[in-house]
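Deliverable D2.4 — example input (structure tokens):
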């Protein structure tokens, strides 16, 4: 058995709004069935669920920062969908904490929160989904949402940049270990993209400066990132396993 092009069972973490919603919509439009995960935004997750094309989609709530919560989410998604073929690790926190302005106690708490959600939850959910993919015997895909900040630096959000760099490294390690089972693992590293959470930052002088980071003079739309995620999860993208795909409109170039 090989991974099909559509009709797959897809778990998208952090799918209540923003990029997670766009990713869920892209898979649903492709004919896949989606488990829409949320941590606390149940109402917004229901909006995401109601926006999806097709049928057979489900809501799955749970705190991924808690290892037991990750187990509950993976179990609920697999039970509702009949298995898991694709995992998109999108759930993340991004709290401002520039070192010169942040008291030590707050600094420690913010770092612990970022590591728990951005890194450990990604690692744990990847383990839970991959073991199911191995047992199913039909291969699978894991796509991690990383960040341009892992390379460019995040002076106001250092824990975010550091944990996203770790997510990239995790994805490459898993790409090697899971390839014998037909499971491809890749990451995307988006630059700035427009969501509800950052809409205020795109106003006025700050917004102009952010758009000027790209020679295209704009920021990305979530649908542009979601399209790349959908392709990396496709059967055609197996040979891209281990990649970190930059999606930043030439705002940060590396070689």
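Example output (designed residues):
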């Amino acid at each position: 058995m090989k991974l099909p092009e559509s009709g797959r069972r897809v778990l998208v973490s952090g799918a209540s709004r923003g990029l997670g919603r766009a990713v869920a919509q892209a898979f649903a439009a492709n004919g896949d069935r989606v488990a829409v995960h949320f941590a606390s935004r149940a109402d917004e997750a229901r909006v995401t669920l109601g926006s999806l094309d097709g049928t057979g989609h489900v809501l799955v709530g749970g705190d991924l920062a808690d290892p037991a919560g990750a187990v509950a989410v993976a179990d609920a998604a697999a039970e509702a969908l009949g298995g898991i073929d694709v995992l998109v690790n999108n759930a993340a926190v991004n709290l401002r904490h520039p070192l010169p302005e942040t008291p030590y106690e707050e600094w420690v708490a913010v770092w612990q929160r970022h590591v728990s959600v951005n890194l450990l939850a990604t690692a744990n959910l990847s383990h839970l989904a991959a073991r199911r993919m191995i047992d199913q015997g039909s291969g699978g895909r894991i796509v991690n949402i990383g960040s341009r900040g892992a390379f460019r630096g995040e002076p106001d959000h250092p824990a975010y940049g550091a944990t996203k760099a770790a997510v990239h490294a995790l994805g490459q390690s898993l790409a090697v270990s899971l390839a014998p089972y037909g499971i491809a693992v890749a990451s995307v590293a988006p630059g700035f993209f427009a969501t509800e959470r950052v809409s205020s930052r795109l106003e006025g002088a700050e917004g102009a400066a952010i758009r000027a980071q790209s020679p295209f003079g704009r920021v990305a739309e979530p649908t542009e990132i979601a399209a790349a995620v959908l392709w990396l999860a496709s059967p055609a993208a197996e040979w891209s396993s281990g990649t970190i795909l930059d999606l930043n409109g030439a705002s940060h170039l590396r070689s």
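The mean pLDDT is 97.
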